[in-house]
Every structure is written in structure tokens, then in C-alpha cells.
Amino acid sequence: MRTLFGQSDDESDEKTSYKKEKLKQLSAEYNLDTKVRRSLAADIWPIPEIVNIERRNSCADSLKLFAETYFPSKFDLAFSDEHLDLIRSMDESLLDSEGLLAYAFPRGSGKTTLAEILCIHALFYGKRRFVVLISAEGKASTEAFANIGSEVRYNELLLEDFPEICYPILLTEGNSWIAKHQHVHGKPTHITIRADMLTLPLVEESKVGGSVIRCASIMGRIRGLKHNIPNGGTIRPDLVVIDDPQTDKVAKSLSQVNARERIINGTIRGLAGPGKPLTVLMPCTVIQSNDLADRFIDRNKRPEWRGKKSKLVRSFPSRMDLWHEYWKIKCDSYRNGGKGWEATEFYQNNRSDMDQGADVPWEARFTPPIQVSALQHAMDLYFKDPITFFSEYQNEPIIESLGENAGRIELKAEQLQQRYSGLDRFVCPQHTIHVTTGIDIQQRILYYLTVAWTEDFGGSIIDYGTFPKQPIDYFRTVNPPVPMEALQKDLSIGPLVFFGLENLRNMLPRYVVDNTYDTLSNQKVFIDANWSLTTDAVYGFCKQEEKSFLFHPCHGRGIGAAQLPMSDWPKKLGEKKSDYNWVERQTTNVKNRGRHIIYDTNWWKSVVAERLIAPKGSPNALLLYGHASTRHELLCDHLSAEHPIEVYGRGRRIDEWKVKPGLSENHYFDCLVMSAVAACYLGLNPHNITITEDNNIISKVAPSRKRRVAAAPPRST
Long-range contact list for 500-503, CB < 8 A, 24+ apart? Predict the structure, then answer.
């Protein structure tokens, strides 16, 4: 007979049998009726014996073994090296007189779960007597407190090996009245059960009786916490877990961040009292630069906290172009009612290339069978929402701000309406170098816009419209007066777009140069090929017209701060790569569709927008055909439908363009951007641009030379 609880070896077989039977009845299931359970709970003697003393003792000095042994369902995946390093640091924090540890791990990595299990481990083995759970809001700390309480009451393995703790708590059924009247041999167990507090039972067999676990909000009443033990002692907090001490709103407020930092360094670190050891753990997430989490995991600013930061992806794959193709295949599969299996097959067929340069520390983290590797799992998360990915999984957040940038580039319809060139429709400025057109594909109509470009990348919009031509000046794309299907019935979307492009080709006229007898025609026409339902039609039309070298399919990609910039894309064989954020490729990875253009829409929208706000008369200004009486309401609404959001992330800032709230019609703006890329394709490059700031005309370098979009996924080393 084991003697851990002072049980003698000559204890009667009858008493041992009684204990086992009672444990079996009350832990396995609750088949007894409520009155019987409560009558048994009033006097809970005898305390059951330990089922496996060797198992219990083996976990005393190892949090890892304790977690794997008593919580197997919570840790069904193998730990990564970073997990093991964190667990070692947690073990060490309990041995230090002042163990401080702040760590930011990817969402779903178990950082909070490990902290909760550390609390149980510390209490059950008597390493700490008073545990406090603190979070940004009271609700979050209450949830963590409830998780620990649930494990203490219902975890069968803990009940088997720690019956002196779990058995009395189990019999209370979470009822404070039962806990108040519970006793052993006439001695109360003094269990306290509250919404924010639980004390462990005082029984002769236990050396940890009277230990406390409490929860609180960081802005709540936490100063001077203590607990009086019925046997006459007083204990103060000696283990504090600060779980995510800030919300998104708090992280953006410098004053609130400073206030909480003072609470942590002052009130919380002083909870143990003078000369008493205190362990403080802070599982956290970096929301933005210099927020509360960022300060405490920074070993230069707070070296005593031994900060740790883990990323889901240490190094991104070098062949991001293949991963972009992978995501396109997956999205097409979803659109067609599939489940993405085609993308997984593409990854398996190209895995050696797609894995190149990547480093994902937690190799066991993926969901079979739809995913076959941790890298595939990480890239799925990345493509779904890059901004969330870098914040929640990389702890390197991308921060959006409309503050300073909102006034620098702001396209307003009423101001654009005043940017008339004084030239009639179809008339080019005298110094026109190139004439290009962009065509945007929509389900019911096609939009086009033509620009005459001058040497300084300024010029004039000389023509725009739709096919079919509409009888009214202002309409909505979803319900045009004359849709394409009205002219050609019984055609599916692909053939219908092909039909529209053929007709639009014949509508493009020759243009007159102002004050001359010269005429110009379109030199390049870029056609949007992004919509998967019409991609084949666009490529087929361009293939049909390839002898003229006039029409090119193109794909716009909004490359933000969280994505690899084109400047860092690996150059492929036969590829034409520009310094101005576009590339020409000869084929695609899926089908041999032929040459096509890929360009960064965010970068090029900034280029175009800066020319739309450049003062009239400057060589870079982009104007609209017509005179003061000419109305361009629909065009101006489309051109002003988006605004730039200055995005910060990982030491860089760029503009990401998004549709303004309540607006959705931006098709002429897309056409203008394609026309600008086409002009650059012909050899026209952005130059210095003059804009107005604070009523002063100043010279600024064009976006291509002023700023470079840095890599969001870092290049592999």
C-alpha cells in the first residue's frame, strides 16, 4: 500500500475496497441521483488512494511530460522545437526567484493552453500557492479560469493521481453551498467556489490545501490581493499569467498602452509582497509596432522578460509565383463547386520547387487529407487574409492608417470634373507619344478607356465608353439599358465576351493630333483577363489578333505590404521584367495560353492617381477631353471610387487601394490603369511629378523612384 497520504500499510482491505468503489461511482459518471451525491459530499471520507504514484511523481519536474500525460487530447500533435524551448523556459521560470517570461506565438499554437496547464502543474505539485489569471478584459480571464476549473473537476487522469485535490472538488458539483458544508472526519475542507476564485481543499492527505486560483481584468481591482488560510496563514500571489493584456483598440492608443505597462511593472510585479518570489507569464500577440506586447517581448527594451517571438513561417518559399498559381487554382475550384483538391494535386506535382527556401518550424501543423504539409497549411492561411496572417501568425502586423495619407492622394469627382483639356473627343495633345487603351470585362457590358500619353507620362483621356453603347450617360453595371445578351442571345458568358471584344475592336477609331493633320491609332490595348469565366475568351481573342501585336491579356494583382513585390519575383526563362512593377510572361503554369502581362494594381493606381491630382499645366498632369460644359459624371465617379490606405508593416509603408464605403463602380479607373501599364510597356516611363501640398507647388519623384514596395514574405536565405 502506497503511503504518500499517510495511509498505513495495514489499512484494512475493506476500507480500500470502499474507497475504490466510491471513486468508481463518483468519477465515472454521475449515475447516482442528486440527493445521494449531495449526502455523500457532506462527508467525503475516506479520500481515494492514488491510482498511479509513479506516473504522478515522474511529471513533477517536467511540464512537457505533465501536459502529454494528463492532457493528451490537448496535445495530439508533436511539439515543435520552439514549443520545447518555450516549455523549458516555463519550467525555469518556476525555479527563479523572479521568473518573468513574455512570449508571442502564432494563433492556435497552444500558448494560452500551456499557460493554463502550467498553473495546474504549479498548484498540484506545490510549486506555487496563489495563481492569478489576468487579461485585457474580465471575460477573457474568466474563460481561462473556467478552463482550469473544468480540468480540475472532470479530468479523469488528474482525479486518479491527485484525488486529495480533485475528489473533494468533484463532489461539490461546482456548488458553493455544498463546498461550504463539505468536511472530512468533521473537519471542513474550506473549498471556496466563486465565479472568479477557487481554493483547493484542506485535507490531511494534501500538502497544497488552501492554494488559490483567481482571475481578474488588468484594469480591475488587483492591488493588494491576498488570501487568509483557515489554519492561520496568509498567502499572496506567487504566479501571475497575463493572457493577451491588450485589445486591438488598446494597442492603437499610446496612453492606454503606457497605462497598462505601468500596471504590469508596478501593481502586478508587486503582488507577491516584499522579498517574495513572483513568476509572471505573458502569452501575447503583437498587434502593432510598439504596442504592449511588442515592448515586453523586445529583449533590448525589457531584457528581464526574456521575450520570445515565434512565427508560423520562418522563411517563405522562394517560388512565390508557383504559390500564386496554386491559390488561383484553389479559388477556381471553389468557384466551380469543388473543394480545392486540384490545388493540392498541383502542389504535390510541384512540391520540390514550391518547398524551396521555406522554413516552417511546426511540421505537424496541417489538416490532412486536403493539406499534405505544414507549409501548405501556412500558405492557405496567408492567401486567405495576408494582413491577419502577419498579425496573428507571424507577430509582425501590417497596420493600416488613413491619417496622414488621406490628404495626400484623394480623388474627388467634383475636382476631376474640372480637369478638362479644352480638346474635343478623339483629339490628342500635340506632344502625344503613345495612344493606349484598357478594356475591363464585365458580365453584361465591356468598358474601355483610351489615353493619349505625352513624354512626361501626362496626357489626356481622349475617349471612353462601353460595348454595347448605352443610350443614357449614367447607368449601373448590374443593369445597363442595353446588355450584350440583348444583341446576341443564347450565348454563354465566354462566347458572349468574345463577341463583345470583336465588336469593340471595330469601334476603336483613329485619332487626330491637335492643330495638325496627323492621325494616330491605338498602339496597345490591354484587356483584363482576371475573371476565370472569361479568361479563355480573352486569351482566345488576343490569340486571334496576335499578328497585329495590338491586344494583350493582362492580370492585375493588388500586391500589398504582406506580399512579395514584383521586384523580388524570380525571373523566368523568356520573361520580360520591368523596373516599373509589371512583367510579361510567355505562358502560364496551367495552360499554354500564350503571352500575358501581370502588373501591380496598387502601385500603378498610385502612379495614375498622382497624375489626376497634378496641377493643370504641369507636364505630368492627366486631363479629360472636353470643355467647361462637358459632363463626365459617370467617368469621374468611377475614377474617384477608390482611395489609398497607407499600410505599415515590417519596416515599410505602401499604398493599398480599396473601394470607398458605399461605392462599387470603378471600371473606368481599372481601364485607365491598364492603359498606363500599356504605355509603360511601349517604353514610356514615369518621371518626376509636380503636386500641390499646403498650397505650394513642389517637385516629387514619381512613385517608381520614390518608394519601393518591399517584400512582405521575406526572401529565403
Answer: 500/445, 500/446, 500/467, 500/468, 501/439, 501/446, 501/527, 501/537, 501/538, 501/541, 502/541, 503/467, 503/468
